[in-house]
Amino acid sequence: MIAAISWLAFTPKAPGLDIQHFDKINHLAAFSSLTLIALLAFSVPASRIYLGLLGYGITIELVQSQLPNRFASVADIAADGVGIILGAGLYWITEKWLMKKWQWLR
């Protein structure tokens, strides 16, 4: 998933949907998914995952600032952060509610 997000972030932008803030929705979806998957997959403190993914989002923006036809955006980093928070919430719902309700899934 990291490879796919990196490829999408660093390749020239293809003509896309003309929906206002569509790129922010993409950031939100990507980082909430990454957060949920990482929290479910790794037994490390959640803070490391959050900081690592936020660092990844900042790195994407720094690289994009050096690419032609791309630009860095603080709003994109904010959308990444909101996605991380959303992913953490989805993890909480999954881990604390669903997994306890259906313990046989473990």
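Above is the first protein from milestone M3; the second protein from the same milestone is given next.
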Amino acid sequence: MNINIISQYKGLRRENYILCFGRLVTAMGAMVRPMLTMILSQKLGMNAVQVAWVTALMGILSIPANLVGGKMADRFSKKMNIVYLDIVSVVCYIICGLIPLSGKSIVLMFIASTCQNMENPSYNSLTADITLTEDRERGYSLQYLMGNLGGVMASAVAGFMFRNYLWLAFLLSGISIGISSVLIFLFVQNITPVKDISQKAVYQANRHGESLWTILRENRLILLYILTASGYGAMYQMYNYLVPMDLVRLHGDTGAVIYGTVTSVNCIIVVIFTPIFTKLLHRFSEPVKTMYGYLMMLFGYGIFLVFAGHISFYYVAMIVMTWGEVSNMLAESPYLTRRMPASHRGRVHGLMEVTRIGVMSGYQMLIGVIYKNSTPTFTWIIVLMTGALFLGLTGILAAKDKRRYKNLYRV
């Protein structure tokens, strides 16, 4: 790999690298959440509609938690928010590993997952605080890269643990999150926000005392971006919902192993292409990167639909989808942090999570009903049509954004 692609991550603050290493350690133990669909369907015997309702209900119930997480990020120590919420997650996962799998385990998983979601506004806002506007894409890119590097092993191992050692996956998840929180507590010391006086930072000036809704009324394109980003999340969620159910339908008990190995390919491609795409797409605007993400995701799902039953093509589809995932990731946090006052970052990230959860949950319930009452092919066609609609909305955003935030487009 070209040395310039790797060296682009030099020059960030020490705290950036510690946060990234924390992501790496946490991801190494993230073996349970991606297998939720299979746990509910194969271990607890739920049908497609029941799985959709349970996962959607978990998402809906976490909405107030994400709003609280956003307020916490703007009001309290972002570092300690992460540590305290991690402690709750650790306790929940360890208990899950020590008790028989049941409805109680799902409740504990929900609490742990909600705490991890609640800390996202603090994580994203802290990264923005300690990173200059020009360096922000690199900072978020490196975090994403390290998280997926840890996920390479986690995803593959989870597929093999699923049948007989699910309890161990719970324990490893708790231990890894615990290690991450200790690292952040001990080594993230300087969290003083950077002073950015560049022309592109003009939209980030603090506006203390003003409500989030006042800010959003002046920046309505933020709401459109949140909608399109939430749509992307709903589309991508089908990989964790429709794909595993189709793999089990087509390949029986080996579907879990196939799903685990395909997911590990996702992580490998992220590790390889995140630095490459960070370099190649540096000059493209965030809305354009989101459009690329939609295009490649739709193409990947199309491959899965056309070649269903042919295992080798699952990996091809995953590679294409992952290219889209990386492109979308490079847009999300930089878009919000470059266009919003620094004083409101936590709340806007909380709003983003709430909207994403609402859209994902509602869409998954709809797709669950369609999947039960029609054919898998028809269900996938509905998914592709929905993705095309959101792609069109992202195109509108790209055109309007360039006129509204002119300073960000000046070389």
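Note on the second protein: The first helix runs from residue 3 to 7.
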